[in-house]
Amino acid sequence: MTVAITVQNLNHYFGQGQLQKQVLFDINLEINSGEIVIMTGPSGSGKTTLLTLVGGLRSAQSGSLNVLGQELAGATAKQLTEARRHHGYIFQAHNLHSSLTAIQNVKMGLELHPAVSLTEIQTRATDMLEQVGLGDHLHDYPDDLSGGQKQRVAIARALVSHPQLVLADEPTAALDSKSGRDVVTLMQTLAKEQGCTILLVTHDNRILDVADRIVNMEDGRLTKTALALTEI
Amino acid sequence: MIKFIQQLQRRTPLGWLQLSHERGRLVVALAGIAFADVLMFMQLGFQASLYDSNTRVDRAMAADIILLSPKALNLQNLSTFSRRRLLQALDVPDVQAANALYINSLTWRNPQTRLNATVQVLGFDPDQPAFNLPQVNQQLDKLKLPDTVLFDRGARGEYASVITQLDQNQPVTTEAEGRTLTLTGLFELGASFGADANLMTSDQTFQRLFPRRDAASVSLGLLRLKPGADPDQVAAALKSHLPEDVLVLTAAEFVQFEENYWKTASPVGFVFGLGTAMAFVVGVVIVYQVLSTDVNAHLKEYATFKAMGYHNGYLLSVVFEEAMILAFVGFIPGAILPLGLYALAAKATALPIFMTVSRALLVLTLTVVMCILSGAIATRKLQSADPADMF
User: Is the minimum CB–CB distance between B380 and chain A shorter than 8 Å?
Assistant: First the structure.
């Protein structure tokens, strides 16, 4: 099995000089391809910071951070942007573009990849929305969709380009328990079909069972790096 | 190139979708741009009509070369020079005829309202046509009678019933400088910023109206050349032949001289130029407001696009796409409205205000520059769309 993410001795600081504050302490983590890893921990423990570092939204300051075979520590802004094209993001809020219909939003996830032709964009976006159960809402604007539907469009947007890595930050936080459950199951099914790795940050105990592995973070340190699901 | 078009086809027209999704905001934006365009059109229109109307008499003169006093400022302040220079000009081979034109402003009694008004009197020898105006040249015989004048149909002021009467061939009488003047016919030149109306008359009548003007001191000398002569060469010959108390200009140079006065020496040209610049700035502010509001409203979405791997350049292109759409769509009402306003202003001021293709292109260019400039300022906000804040 290949390794998707390798984090070694990663430290991260916010602020400069006197005000500098360390938020991540000596993180070591390895995630295999196709693995679904859930990261839990109290607020302010540094989960999101680690997620943004892995996702190439922040540049890593020290240590080593290898994501999908690319070293992100010391990468330039342009390299980070390129790296982000291979990731799928699912945010707490759906963050759909309100001026675009569901299908236009999903297409935006494919337009980034110049190899994909116009007709392919069209069919893949349609298929993807059908897979998430929104085949009847292709041309609805986000404002006309329910919270769960919006989050499903966001998942379709994140997965339509078949990313090798999906990063999600509390994707169920804004949803009721049933839609939350549906959304996570959907992510799990689609990810298994496409064989992609998922790193998911959540507070939601109800969805922990989808994980292959759960890591816990507290005060900027990983406390249990390899807790098998059966141990909970 | 083909690759570029293919890329364009793939691309979601995000700028257009963003603008068209917010109908209200789009309408306000377009109204703002149209407003700025209308302002620019009006200022430029008045400016052009200023130059146009003030050179209309100059352009109508039947002359290839014009002699004038070196002290002349414009048609209303020509000063005078000696009539001898006209006779001397005839020494130069290619000069066929040299005629005097007398110009002075006259306070007369408006025949309709009986109130005092100021008009510009153009006096010349009726045997020698001084203007390329068929209407005048057909009526030269009328001017041979003493104290008769031809009246300007395009005059500014209350002359409607006078014109109707003259149209029915009924002479109209009025009074000026203690003499009774008879209006016997019409021609058309139009009002300018310098004069409300023009009267054409014979040099004899002119002398009677202005007894203090010496017949030997002329306002302008109109020289006609033999067919085939080159005006520039003859003008050069005249310059060396005549003393320095007279200025020699070709017809084109004379129009340029008049226009130049209004452009530089009078404040009017500057005022309209400034007005255009102000309208441009107003436009920049309006478009900037619209675009920056739009960028602010979509900051979160833009940050999401950045997180998905879109470059900053892509977001810049969205803002510029919006700017270009606003410029071109806003220009349409901005160019149509002035057509009506020009007609209205032309009617109210008797000035020649009309739309020209070159002005429309100029304003379109200014609109595009205006929108690009506003777009460039608005994109500064894009930097604050930080994808790291999205999680």
Answer: no
